[in-house]
Amino acid sequence: MIKKYLSIFACLLVLAFGCWAMAYAYFEVPMTYDGSDVDVTELYKDPSSYDINDPDGVADIIVKTDLEQTRAQNVVAAVVFDYRGFDTIGESFILLAAIAGAFVILHGAVKKGKEAEKE
Amino acid sequence: MRFKDGITEQNVVVKCGSDFMLPFALMFGFMVIFFGTTSPGGGFQGGVMVASAVLLVYLGYGREAAQSVISSEFIRVNEAVGAIIYVALAMCGIFAGGMFCENVFFRLFNIGDPLSAGTITFMSYAVGYKVLTGVGFLLLLLVGLLALDTQEEVDA
After folding, report:
1. Contact A86/B94 with Cβ under 8 angstroms?
2. How many CA atoms, within 13 angstroms, populate the side-chain half-sphere of residue A111?
3. Fewer Cβ close by (within 10 Å): the C or N end of chain B?
4. What is the per-residue burial (b if ≥16 Cβ within 10 Å, else e) of B109-133?
5. CB contacts, 8 Å: A81 with chain B
């Protein structure tokens, strides 16, 4: 009985702490990154300054400032692992999940084949 | 040599071809991983190239040889290790006082050195390790499925 009440109490505690953290993150967390000194953000704030005649607006900026900002000669690697590093985390975990799913589905069949071989 | 595959004996030409191509494929794949930031390529592409060595071994020596040469347990575990290394490298930005996934030490070397890109280089290596183990495990799993087909043909 005590265990049940304890678990309810723990759940309520987690819920209250989560609500407090959400409120804190919404109202009081100081802004650590406002995107200043980044050309792409300024373009986003002021779209009328976007050069329509140039076909590669943002890509042009990335290509031109890549060597100063990341010192990677391969711009694709710089975009994949630095500008969009968070995206790459998601990609690699999607690969992990897909292979885990394939393993779960196919593992039984492979095991069955090995057993049939031994007989 | 005789194998219990659909084809009972591997052709000598196929075997010698896989022997000849295997070191070149491995070297090219690892080169694409290790020089991913200074030349075209990167972790994903090089990892898949290295993982194709599983198929070369299978073509030359059959399914059982591929399963006995490459430890599927080892590469299954090491895929997660690669993912953890990537996240740890991304956390380096926080420990250095910046943001998540921030590039930390990229001013130590001149432009053109293999390590001049800082964290990007090591992230590329981590993703390459993760992809080569993951896709290699997937190919090994699919090769292992071929045992079922041959067994059913023998039964029928």
Report:
1. no
2. 6
3. C
4. eeeeeeebbbbbbbbbbbbbbbbbb
5. 42-43, 119-120, 123-124, 127
Distance CA A37, CA A57 (A): 17
Structure tokens at B154: 């023998």
Among B65, B147, B68, B4, smallest CA distance to A112 is for B147
Residue matched to tokens 């692992």: A81
Q: Where are the domains of chain A?
A: 1-30, 33-73, 84-119
Per residue in B43-70, pLDDT (tens digit) is: 899 999 999 999 999 888 888 888 888 8
* Interface predicted TM-score of the whole assembly (ipTM), two decimals: 0.81
CB B61 within 8 A of CB B17: no
B85, B124 Cβ separation under 8 angstroms: no
Residues of chain B with pLDDT under 70: 1-9, 149-156
Measured between alpha carbons, how far is A93 from A100 in angstroms, rounded to an integer? 10
Q: Which residue of A has its CA nearest to B122?
A: A81
Alpha helices in chain A (DSSP H): 2-27, 39-45, 57-69, 75-78, 85-118
Report the residue from B83, B130, B138 with minimal CB separation from A102: B138
* Residue from A32, A71, A89 to probe the interface with B (highest B Cβ count within 10 Å): A71
